[in-house]
Design brief:
Blueprint (H helix, E strand, L loop, with lengths): L2 H12 L3 H23 L2 H18 L9 H30 L11 H5 L4 H12 L4 H12 L4 H8 L3 H23 L5
Helix pairs in contact: 1-2, 2-3, 2-4, 3-4, 4-8, 7-9
Length: 190
C-alpha cells in the first residue's frame, strides 16, 4: 500500500468511515499481534492487546500527525499497552511469590526441548520464552530491533529512548540471550 493511499484511508477513518478503518485494522493487525506475542509470550494476551490497540487507534486517530510514520505511531500504542500488561504481571507474580515461599516458576524452556526444535514454530516458541526472561527495556528493544526488524530510528520513535540507551539495552539483551542459551541448552558460540 502506497503512503498516499494509506493517508487517504487514515483521513477517511478520521471522518468516521468504518470500512476504511477496517482496512487499517486488516492491514496492520498481524504486525501488532506479532509484536505483542513477542513481548508478552502469551497468545491470549497478545490477542487482547491487538483489540485494545485498535480501540485506542480509533479513539485517538485525530491525534495522529501525518508527518510521522503510521506504523511507528501504531507500534508505540501497542508497545505501551504491552508494557502496562507486563507491569501488571510483574506485580501479580510478586504477590504470588510472597504467598508461596517456593517462588514462581520461571519461563525457562526444558533443555531437552531444544533437541526437538525442528520447526521454525518450535524455535520461535523458545525465543519467546527466552525473551520473557529479559528485563523490560531489554526485551522491548530486542523485540523491536531483532525480532520485528525495526531500524534504530524507528525504535527511538516507538520507545522514546535515546539511541545510546537502545544500543546499550540491545547489547545486554543479546548477551543475556547468549548466556541463557549456553547455560540452559549448552549452545556454544560459533
Amino acid at each position: 500500500m502506497s503512503d498516499q493511499l494509506l493517508q487517504e484511508i487514515i483521513e477517511k477513518s478520521r471522518r468516521g468511515d468504518e470500512p476504511a478503518f477496517s482496512q487499517l485494522v486488516r492491514r496492520h493487525q498481524t504486525y501488532v499481534f506479532a509484536l505483542a506475542l513477542r513481548l508478552l509470550c502469551d497468545e491470549h494476551d497478545a490477542e487482547e492487546i491487538v483489540q485494545q490497540t485498535f480501540i485506542r487507534v480509533w479513539q485517538n486517530l485525530q491525534r495522529y500527525k501525518p508527518e510521522q510514520k503510521f506504523t511507528t505511531w501504531l507500534y508505540r500504542i501497542a508497545t505501551n499497552l504491552c508494557l502496562d500488561r507486563l507491569r501488571v504481571r510483574s506485580r501479580d507474580a510478586a504477590r504470588v511469590s510472597s504467598l508461596d515461599q517456593g517462588g514462581v516458576r520461571g519461563d525457562v524452556p526444558d533443555p531437552r526441548g531444544m533437541e526437538e526444535a525442528h520447526s521454525n514454530r518450535e524455535l520461535a516458541a523458545i525465543v519467546y520464552r527466552l525473551t520473557s526472561q529479559l528485563p523490560e527495556k531489554q526485551r522491548l528493544v530486542f523485540v523491536l530491533r531483532d525480532l520485528q526488524e525495526l531500524s534504530i530510528e524507528e525504535v527511538v520513535a516507538v520507545t522514546g529512548m535515546s539511541v545510546g540507551s537502545i544500543k546499550t539495552n540491545l547489547c545486554y539483551a543479546r548477551q543475556r540471550i547468549r548466556e541463557i542459551l549456553r547455560r540452559q541448552f549448552h549452545v556454544s558460540e560459533a
